Amino acid sequence: MRAVPRRWTQERRHDPxxxxxxxxxxxxxxxxxxxxxxxRFHLIPVGASVLDLGASPGGWSLVARELVGKEGRxxxxxxxxxxxxxxxxxxxxxxxxxxxxxxxxxxxxDAVLSDMSPSISGNYSTDHARSIDLVRSALALALTVxxxxxxxxxxxxxxxxTRDLLHEARPFFLTVTLSxxxxxxxxxxxxxxxxxxxxxxxTQGVEA
Length: 208
Ligand SMILES: C[S@@+](CC[C@H](N)C(=O)[O-])C[C@H]1O[C@@H](n2cnc3c(N)ncnc32)[C@H](O)[C@@H]1O
Known about the structure:
The chain is α/β, with parallel strands linked by helices. Helices cover 36% and strands 24% of the residues. The protein has a single domain, classed as Rossmann fold, CATH 3.40.50.150.
């Protein structure tokens, strides 16, 4: 088995979010990114229905479940397996595939979250382009399942195509912005697209 690079173990030992995630029984340090985005933007109200794309190992789903409470609903999707989490429904599938789109057809969500990461090549332009493609797939799916005034949140590896992505999302939402939560490592290019106030087809001027 390949040894984990020593740098990673040292980084983890000094990473307050990693230690806090372990202490608080969270599934991943990524949980803190959603907690911080929630604090700032109030993305997920009590009672909401949430679709969490790229959900494994479940850090965001766990936070979403706590936020929505008993009246709410959380559906997690990932192409990888997902250790069962009480109160969270899981669909295994690939975002961007017609099979997943068909499975979710007819469902409605107040918030669609995507923390999906592409497989990393190490080449910055390639990884940026792959990340943009993933966000486009998540956005396309979100447009079919969001409730009017709903919210879309997606991780993107920032780069020269981010601006195009914002332009593509803007017509569908009242506000679209970018945010980097404190728990996101400074040296990482990841940033979150926050789109709020989904305009239903009728308010976009498109016949339903
Ligand atoms: C950074 S992890 C998500 C961490 C998660 N938000 C948490 O808090 O535990 C990224 C996930 O995206 C998933 N992923 C990447 N591309 C995907 C796709 N096209 N469809 C479904 N899942 C995808 C990966 O399998 C991986 O589990």
